Amino acid sequence: MAKVEELSGENLYACYQCGKCAAGCLFADHMDLLPNQVLRLVQLSDESVLSSRAPWVCASCLACEVRCPKGVDIAKVMEALRLLVLRTGETGLRLWEIPSGVPQIALVGATRKHTP
Amino acid sequence: MPNVARHPSRVTRHALPYFPGCALKDQAGHFEASAMAAMEALGWELSELPRWNCCGTVYSLASDDLMRHLGPVRNLVRVQELGESRLITLCAMCYNTLRRSSQFVGADPERLERINAFMDEEPDYQGGVEVLHLLQFLRDEVGFEEIAAKVKRPLDGLRVAPYYGCMLLRPREVGIDAPDSPGVMEGLLSALGAEPVDFPQKAECCGAYLTVTDPEIARERVEGIVSAARRAGAEIIATSCPLCQFNLEHHQADDASPVTRHASPVTVVYFTQLLALALGVPGDKLGFERLRFDPRPHLAERELV
């Protein structure tokens, strides 16, 4: 909890679980936890959140960020969770599985999001 | 003896420092070429920033990740070396990353001090460079009225859906327009004589770099966006982001794509291609042939090419 707070720079207790982030999230269908559930587990310091797929599905599109009534930048929380995993040396990025023909703007974006 | 003052129209206007980024030197070369041609037609020059480097593509959202601001700040140092205070961008991702980084270091002198100390071979960045997107410059400095007055080839009601994506609009502090109801591209398209087509997905994410790690998700996003634009009556989608442009084309072209199973694909152009065309730049100089889905049949119907 303290590490996520430090890395994200966000006040995580501001979240009162209204669910607006989840309602507007374009990627929630593919997440195993909704964005507000991710936040709740972080509030509870439940480390199982670190094995959730949700932060890796989040594309940092910031739809939640502009809509949160409490001003919590959830994309920063997702980034903090990714970094906590990446900084242990884990990465889900398998370079040999990258489809051919994707432009460098996509490659740089993806590798930056999947490296510490 | 030449008298410059008597011929103000001949005076070359001030060159604007311009940051291309990777895509504009690669798959989006026609974005750059059309923007330069359009600006020249408007009496401005985009001048490529010397020794520019990668912006980083995605802005780091971590509070302790100063390292990832180095790339953007080095570019701002290049602007400072020119004695300039503004930097024009075309790529929406470059715009977002550079503008957010400039605000990030501007908000805290200690951060900037550490970054300057790290870049010991560079002059210190003093702060104060403003990063602008070309759409902002066209709206706020050139003005849509002036653009409309310079249109030589009105787009004759061409139905264009402006697609903003994320990086021009969010977060609010760097957004060039209202994040949920932007109108800057609509304003420009109207000035060019096109008919802007509104659709609810215009500010939704295309899936961005998930096209690398989770292409199925990006395909689903593109399906929603393109289908909505088509239902709203768009003949063409216009964008300013090379990653959106790639995703919107690529995931329509896929044989497995549900988007194109029942209907023909929607062509996806850069807004500058339409701008330059309307300002009289010949269509064969605008790289339409480099697009996966050729817009020229739609343009030819209106005798624009």
In short:
The complex is a heterodimer of chains A (116) and B (305). Chain A is mainly alpha-helical and 116 residues long.
Question: What are the salient characteristics of this protein?
Answer:
heterodimer; A: 116 residues; mainly alpha; Fumarate Reductase Iron-sulfur Protein, Chain B, domain 2; 46% helix; B: 305 residues; alpha/beta; Glutathione S-transferase Yfyf (Class Pi), Chain A, domain 2; Rossmann fold; 2 domains; four-stranded parallel β-sheet; 12 helices; 8 strands; 40% helix; globular; disordered N terminus
Global shape of chain B:
globular
Succession of helices and strands of chain A: HHHHHHH
Question: What proportion of the residues of chain B form beta strands (DSSP E)?
Answer: 5-15%
Structural class of chain A: mainly alpha
CATH class of chain A: Mainly Alpha
Give the N-terminus to C-terminus distance of chain A in angstroms.
19 Å
Supply the number of structural domains of chain A: 1
Structural class of chain B: alpha/beta
* Widest sheet: strand ordering of chain B: 2-1-3-4
**Average pLDDT of chain B:** 93
Total strands of chain A: the figure is 0
| Oligomeric state of the chains in view | heterodimer
Largest sheet of chain B: 4 strands, parallel
CATH topology of the largest domain in chain B: Rossmann fold
Shape descriptor of chain A: globular
Description:
The complex is a heterodimer of chains A (116) and B (305). Chain A has 116 residues and is an all-alpha fold. Chain A has a single domain (2-113), classed as Fumarate Reductase Iron-sulfur Protein, Chain B, domain 2 (Orthogonal Bundle), CATH 1.10.1060. Chain A contains seven helices and no strands. Chain A starts with a helix and ends with a helix. Helices cover 40% and strands 10% of the residues of chain B. In chain B, the strands form two sheets. A four-stranded parallel sheet of chain B has the order 2-1-3-4, with helices on both faces. In chain B, strands 6-5-7-8 form a four-stranded parallel sheet, with helices on both faces. Chain A binds chain B through residues 6-9, 26-27, 30, 56-57, 59-63, 65-66, 73, 75-76, 78-80, 83, 92-93, 98-99, 101-110, 112-114, and chain B through 21-23, 26-27, 54, 56-58, 60-65, 68, 91, 93, 166, 169-172, 179-180, 204-205, 207-215, 217, 221, 242-243, 246, 250.
